[in-house]
Amino acid sequence: MATETAAPPPPPEAGTAAPPPDGAPLSPHLRLWRHYALVKVRKAVVVVFVVANVTFFLGRAMPGDPIDVMAGRLTQGGMSLEEARIIAANSLAYDPDAPLWAQWWDFIVGLVTFDMGMTINRPGFSVAESIAAYLPWTLFSIGAGTLVSITLGLALGMVMAYRRNRLLDHVLSVVASVLGAIPNYLIAMLLVVGGGMYLSWFNPISLRGTLSPGVEPGFNAEFLGDALYHAGLPIFTYVLAIIGTWMLVMKASTTEVLSEDYVTVARARGLRDRRIATSYVGRNAILPLVAQIAISFGTLVGGAIFVEQVLVYKGIGGLLLDAVEYRDYPLLQGLLVVLTTCVVAANLVADLLYSRLDPRIRK
Amino acid sequence: MTASPAAPAPPQGPLLSVRGVDVGYRTGRRSRSTAVHDVSFDLHPGQSMALVGESGCGKTTLGLGLLRLLPRTGVVSAGEILFRRKDGRTVDVRSLAREELRRFRWSEAAMVFQGAMNAFNPVLRIEDHFLDTFRAHERGRARRRAGIREESAALLEMVRLDPARVLGAFPHELSGGMRQRALIALALALKPQLLILDEPTTALDLLTQQAIVERLSELREELRFSMLFITHDLGLAAELADRVGTMYAGRLIETGTTRDIFHRPSHPYTSALINSVPPVSGDLVVPESLPGGPPGLSSLPPGCSFAPRCRHAVERCRETRPELEVLHTRGGGLSHAAACLRSRELAAEGATRD
């Protein structure tokens, strides 16, 4: 590797710090970072590939195939099993006799070409179309929930650390621990039963679904407002589900940073409290937590399947359950690959963000 | 080494006058332990005073207390810390309001901390530390970044660092010695009248220590700030200080010029400290160790707190607590005083001589 020791740039004239001209060699910091980013992206791709294969084989390892499942349903209507199997085989785009390796090859080719084929049980819909119809709602509600809870959790955690062992800290600690201990689908149930039925703060029936009847997607106030109205309950559930953990983790991290020498030195230097709280305490306290943003997001993606069922929110959760129940292999694989990709992408973003925020990590 | 006769005391009197200061830590809901008892001394402009003593004697607590930088549980519970500011007005640091205190820190009195490894925010460049410091203390219009950068570069050059390399670096990219120099440069940024140094060279190798100490004493000549430095390295004290104060169990038990302390120590503890350091030249003697350690803050003996470890202790030492007694009067805070009931007898016997 050529080790060109980039000559230090000539000292800039006072007051005219010109940006480096185009084509100038990247600064060593940036070059290191680019290398770091490449390594991380490569790892992410490998993870997605491995998970995709696991989902493929796991799906097929489940007892029964799409035709069994459909035939089973048809026999409940009084049809003989033989007859039902023939009808099911004719109406579904699935060939049970195709060898496993051929199916696997189709799947991999589909992955690489971003064409995941047709669903088995949703005639006329491709996998991509089905996912595109449901995924945005889930990503929107989870994304908003993650964002709100992390922002609030970090702020409250910092306040707790600054006032540790005072009344406010004790109260918030109890609240955070309780919230952290309740599973997210229970929080959803508590909200519906408590807020919707007993206290009548809202009408849980009209909140169902992702949009009110008659509202068309489009970039207008009516659509956005209605989407938020329907997403409110899931978002609130997600916020409550993870905010407790964030408060406690941030409190611990902030408390640790507050005892660092550089904070005392910053006070000795006469910096303003606000400056110390943001650039010295806050930034260093958040650093070790950045990686956990992705973990939170991943947890919520898993939890969304239950929460969406409880709140009758038409996101990806219901679709995934259907895909499992009817053994809709292409849809199941497609969904899991897309969800995995989302979580891995969140991890990747967190990693890259971390490396930008912490100069010590770029190597 | 010569203990230079101190410059004639300027007429205005001391820069820092510490009067009967107690510093305590809250240990429970209603309990408090006192780490520094009734410490008084005057520091005159241009003087350099070393505070020596074992670990746990309250030196660092006192240093932090002077700038009210104690951790949350610590408080200066009694006394006055009078400081004559650049504008000539004398203020009591204890009664400064929040914003006044913030402006006082670093512009009047700066502090270089023990183990500067960690004194810089790891996510900010050295340049940003200078920028933050200047910005926090400017009044009125914000200064141009370029101007601050130039001034920071000059400060770094003063401590023999290459600004082109250091300004844009993150703290972890610098060696320990470079960080310590950078911190000293940062400490001098606002031209403070007083520099408090807490174990400024402890974590550094001997050559780096030496270089930093030399540079510090040159800078003191140049910039004429006063210095209060806390150390358990007696060699460093002998080299950098005009005066030495010995602390034991939270009290100042002996104070005098460097010559007084090293040649005529009048408290058995001071002489024990000196005897525990092997001499660099001369015959090889086995350094004497002083058995035991300082008493716990909650279990101070009623008499002299050093009595349990003192070879010369007699019955009355265990009953009466000695006050600082002036043995040799000089102006400018340079009197020799010791808090030992038997200091005169022992001096006559030659027992505290080394």
List the main descriptive attributes of the protein structure presented here.
heterodimer; A: 363 residues; mainly alpha; 13 helices; globular; disordered N terminus; B: 354 residues; four-stranded antiparallel beta sheet
Q: How does this model look, in words?
A:
The complex is a heterodimer of chains A (363) and B (354). Chain A is an all-alpha fold and 363 residues long. Chain A is built from 13 helices and no strands. Chain A is 71% helix and 0% strand. In chain B, a hairpin with a 5-residue loop joins strand 4 (74-84) and strand 5. In chain B, helix 3 (126-137) crosses helix 4 (145-158) and helix 4 (145-158) crosses helix 6. Chain B has helices at residues 59-66, 98-104, 126-137, 145-158, 163-166, 176-187, 206-223, 234-240, 258-263, 268-275, 343-349; strands spanning 16-26, 32-43, 48-52, 74-84, 90-92, 109-112, 194-198, 226-230, 243-248, 251-257, 325-328, 336-338. Chain B has a domain at 115-191. The chains are: A mainly alpha (363), B alpha/beta (354).
Present the secondary structure layout.
The complex is a heterodimer of chains A (363) and B (354).
Chain A: H1 28-61, H2 66-76, H3 81-91, H4 100-112, H5 127-162, H6 167-181, H7 184-198, H8 221-258, H9 261-268, H10 273-286, H11 290-311, H12 316-325, H13 329-357
Helix pairs in contact in A: 1-13, 2-3, 5-6, 5-8, 5-11, 5-13, 6-8, 7-8, 7-11, 8-10, 8-11, 9-10, 11-12, 11-13, 12-13
Chain B: E1 16-26, E2 32-43, E3 48-52, H1 59-66, E4 74-84, E5 90-92, H2 98-104, E6 109-112, H3 126-137, H4 145-158, H5 163-166, H6 176-187, E7 194-198, H7 206-223, E8 226-230, H8 234-240, E9 243-248, E10 251-257, H9 258-263, H10 268-275, E11 325-328, E12 336-338, H11 343-349
Parallel strand pairs in B: 3-8, 3-9, 6-7, 7-8
Antiparallel strand pairs in B: 1-2, 1-4, 4-5, 9-10, 10-12, 11-12
